[in-house]
C-alpha cells in the first residue's frame, strides 16, 4: 500500500484563519490536528491539537506541574479562555519545522517513520507539484498497518 491508497480528503486551514475555525474543524472531524496550507494549497505546516491546547493554559502553569496542582477543580475552569482574535499562524512556532509531507507513492513504513520522527499525528500527501492531495492521520495509518499486516 502507498500513501495515495490510504490518504483521505481533510479540511485545511490557512495561517490567517481564526484559530477558533481550526478548533471547530478538529472537533467536528475528530482530527488530531490540521494541515495548514498556503494560497496555492501547498502544505506549510501541520498544526497539532496539542499546540492549540497550549493557548488555553498560561505558560507559567505549563512549565510547572506543581503549580498546576495548587488550583482546585472549580478554579481550574477559569483558566480556559476563548482563542479570541488569535489566528492559526499565532499557534505556529516562529521557526516552524517543515510540515510532515510525503509523496503519493510513499510506503506505509515511510509514513510511520516520518510520523514517529516528527511526533506528528498527521501527514500531508502531495503530488509532484507539492499540491495537497490528502492527509493521513495516525489512526488511519495504524488501521491500514493492521489490515495490511501478517495474519495472527
TrEMBL record:
PANTHER family: CBS DOMAIN-CONTAINING PROTEIN, CBS DOMAIN-CONTAINING PROTEIN CBSX3, MITOCHONDRIAL
Keyword Thylakoid included in the entry's annotation: no
Domain CBS: 1-65, 95-152
Pfam families: CBS
Keyword Magnesium tagged: no
Protein name: CBS domain-containing protein
Record-linked PROSITE patterns: CBS
Lineage, top ranks: Bacteria, Bacillati, Actinomycetota, Actinomycetes, Mycobacteriales
Keyword list, A-Z: CBS domain
Amino acid at each position: 500500500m502507498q500513501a495515495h491508497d490510504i490518504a483521505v480528503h481533510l479540511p485545511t486551514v490557512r495561517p490567517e484563519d481564526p484559530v477558533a475555525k481550526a478548533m471547530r474543524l478538529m472537533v467536528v472531524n475528530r482530527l488530531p490536528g490540521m494541515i495548514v496550507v498556503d494560497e496555492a494549497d501547498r502544505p506549510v505546516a501541520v498544526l497539532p491539537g496539542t499546540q492549540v491546547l497550549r493557548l488555553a493554559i498560561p505558560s507559567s502553569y505549563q512549565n510547572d506541574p506543581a503549580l498546576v496542582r495548587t488550583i482546585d477543580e472549580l478554579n481550574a475552569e477559569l483558566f480556559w479562555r476563548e482563542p479570541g482574535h488569535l489566528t492559526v499562524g499565532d499557534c505556529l512556532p516562529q521557526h516552524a519545522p517543515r510540515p510532515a509531507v510525503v509523496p503519493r507513492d510513499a510506503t506505509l513504513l515511510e509514513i510511520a517513520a516520518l510520523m514517529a520522527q516528527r511526533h506528528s499525528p498527521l501527514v500531508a500527501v502531495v503530488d509532484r507539484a507539492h499540491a495537497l492531495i490528502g492527509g493521513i492521520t495516525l489512526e488511519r495509518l495504524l488501521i491500514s498497518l493492521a489490515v495490511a499486516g501478517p495474519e495472527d
